[in-house]
Design goal:
Blueprint: H1 15-20, H2 22-32, H3 42-51, H4 53-63, E1 74-77, E2 85-88, H5 94-99, E3 107-113, E4 123-128, H6 129-145, E5 153-157, H7 162-173, E6 177-181, H8 187-195, E7 201-205, E8 207-210, E9 213-216, H9 220-227, E10 235-239, E11 266-267, E12 273-276
Parallel strand pairs: 4-11, 5-6, 5-7, 7-10
Antiparallel strand pairs: 1-2, 3-4, 8-9, 10-12
Length: 277
């Protein structure tokens, strides 16, 4: 299919949207800092970013206020992909930057799942940034107490829930490596997949709900660990995804008989973990 070069664009932003765009702010910052002389044309900015790679990435680092535990030695090492390193020597925490400067009362995460009530629509939990920070810190402290540190592997046998995000962030905050798979994998298949990593800790949910059915996985992690097929995991952390509500108002997302409270189908109950050997 050939498209004429003089064909009018389907959509154009209005001037105010262009001025307020993040890329426009970045271009104005570059000019104001004397790091590039730009007239406001996007293609001009793009060409500068391609021709002056070191200057572009250094400017991006400074503009976004990237923090590093150690200063970087050079912006770029190497010139041909994939053998190129960015900011050699830097140690950057993804979790620190994700949580930095957030409104503690703002919504960070919406966890939507099937209702336990037959025929009902999906229900959701809303976690604020303050709740997310506290829960990530709590799980990270537990992992640290279990001896998890930089370079260790933490494996997750979990569905797509808030607990999975919390576990990943807690793992990353320690410099450890996270890997996971969903609970639609059979316990044997999950153990074969994750056991190759020889995880220090296995984090597993007690089960999940799909298509109106409950799938109980409570016995699987312990059984596989005893059999040795879960690698060398020192501990198994269990998160609750089924039938347990920690909200004092009994929000309805965890109990088939409890009426929903608050906004439609919403729940602000914190995620929870209990650990077992």
């Amino acid at each position: 299919m050939t498209v004429s070069a003089d064909r009018a664009p389907i959509w154009l932003p209005d001037p105010d949207e262009v001025t307020a765009a993040n890329v426009s702010r970045f271009a104005r910052w570059l000019t104001g800092q004397g790091r590039a002389q730009l007239t406001g044309d996007y293609l001009e900015l793009w060409r500068w970013s391609v021709d002056r790679l070191d200057e572009f990435w250094s400017a991006a680092w400074d503009y976004f206020g990237i923090r590093s535990a150690t200063p970087y030695e050079r912006v770029l090492s190497g010139s041909v992909m994939p053998d190129v390193g960015w900011f050699t020597g830097a140690q950057v925490s993804y979790v620190e930057h994700l949580l930095r400067g957030r409104d503690p009362e703002g919504i960070a995460l919406i966890d939507a799942r099937e209702s336990a009530q037959p025929g009902a629509g999906p229900v959701s939990r809303h976690l604020t940034w303050g709740m997310l920070r506290a829960q990530v810190g709590s799980v990270a402290a537990t992992l640290r107490d279990l001896g998890v540190g930089p370079g260790d592997r933490v494996a997750g046998y979990v569905p797509n829930t808030a607990e999975a995000v919390i576990a990943f962030l807690a793992t990353a905050s320690l410099g450890a490596i996270w890997s996971g798979c969903g609970q639609d994998y059979s316990p044997a298949a999950a153990a074969e997949r994750l056991g190759q990593l020889e995880p220090a800790v296995l984090i597993a949910a007690d089960g999940y709900r799909y298509g109106g059915r409950e799938f109980d996985r409570r016995g699987s992690p312990r059984t596989r660990r005893r059999e040795g097929s879960a690698g060398r995991a020192r501990r198994v952390l269990l998160s609750s995804s089924r039938e347990r509500c920690r909200s004092a108002t009994r929000c309805g997302c965890c109990s088939p008989r409890a009426p929903p409270a608050g906004p439609r189908g919403s729940c602000t109950a914190p995620a929870g973990f209990s650990w077992s050997t």
